[in-house]
TrEMBL record:
InterPro entries for this protein: GH-type_carb-bd (IPR014718)
The protein's name in its UniProt record: Aldose 1-epimerase
GO molecular function: carbohydrate binding
């Protein structure tokens, strides 16, 4: 396990292949706890029930949830790349399913750490000619957590995929209730597919603790703004906002009784030898007046 720490934040990062060994989430930069000012914790697991879910916890990102690289071009028992994980085996002639556990042939990861940052580098090349090099830096500056990504297509074929961070947020382990609010200033419309969410202009709330999952698609307005989303707990007086500046390809919201997860996606299209860079910025804060 690795730690980044300054006078505001303490960030807990798992070594690739130790805490999480699944086929869904990126093994690099897997953040399992973030503590602000020594008394506010933000990260919770995907599921509280033992053996349920896909192993998500804290801030963990995923490449290709619905755009797996090269999956449709290969046959059963052949391998396809999952960025940040390694090569996965296609074991059935069926559509890719991120809930499914695939056999993993993990990538080797080069790690370098300094006082306020840690970097991960991993390269993979599939037998069918799909290849990538991923560089990821996790850095803390005052009360901000910054994750820098650089993905290079090192293979023979174009890469069409996407990436998002599954932000499993539960402030000080408080259940979702009327004390939580999620503000999304660029939201135009919300399509709630599962569960119940209350809306008032750009603010989403939960009058009651959910008794099951909730899921929604967000219709997003491309315009300037100081943040994309902001989760705040009015009783604790603490929150986190995401300040990433890239143009999202889609926005989703998932959660259940103990966790709320705003998800901001970015599309990735790379010809061989092309590189794409982007970053995610999170700001953690306390409202001293609450």
């Amino acid at each position: 396990m690795y730690y980044l720490e300054n006078n505001r934040l303490k960030v807990e990062i798992q070594e690739p292949g130790s805490f999480y060994k699944g086929s869904r989430f990126d093994w690099t930069g897997f953040i399992t706890q973030i503590t602000l000012d020594g008394n506010i914790n933000y990260c919770v697991p995907e599921r509280l029930e033992e053996g349920k879910g896909t192993g998500g916890l804290g801030l963990c990102n995923e490449f290709g949830i619905d755009m797996p690289i090269g999956y449709d071009a290969i046959e059963v028992d052949e391998l396809f790349p999952k960025v940040g994980v390694g090569l996965l085996k296609k074991d059935q002639d069926e559509a890719y399913d991120f809930f499914k556990t695939y056999e993993v042939f993990p990538s080797e990861v080069k790690i370098e750490k300094s006082a306020n940052s840690i970097t991960f580098e991993t390269t993979n090349y599939s037998p069918m000619g799909y290849g990538y090099h991923l560089f990821k830096e996790v850095e803390i500056v005052d009360n901000q957590l910054i994750i820098n990504y650089r993905l290079e297509n090192t293979g023979d074929h174009p890469i069409y995929t996407n990436e998002y961070s599954h932000n499993f947020i539960g402030i000080n382990n408080e259940l979702i209730s009327e004390h939580y609010q999620l503000k999304m200033p660029r939201m135009k419309e919300i399509d709630v597919a599962v569960g119940s969410i209350s809306r008032s202009q750009d603010r989403l709330t939960w009058p009651l603790t959910p008794d099951g999952d909730f899921y929604a698609h967000i219709d997003w307005e491309v315009k300037n703004g100081t943040y994309n989303w902001d989760v705040f707990h009015d009783k604790i007086g603490a929150g986190v906002r995401e300040l990433s500046e890239f143009r999202p390809s889609k926005i989703a919201l998932w959660g259940t009784n103990h966790v709320v997860c705003p998800e901001v996606f970015i599309d990735i299209k790379l010809k061989p030898n092309e590189i794409k860079s982007w970053k995610r910025v999170y700001e953690f804060y306390q409202d001293k007046e609450v």
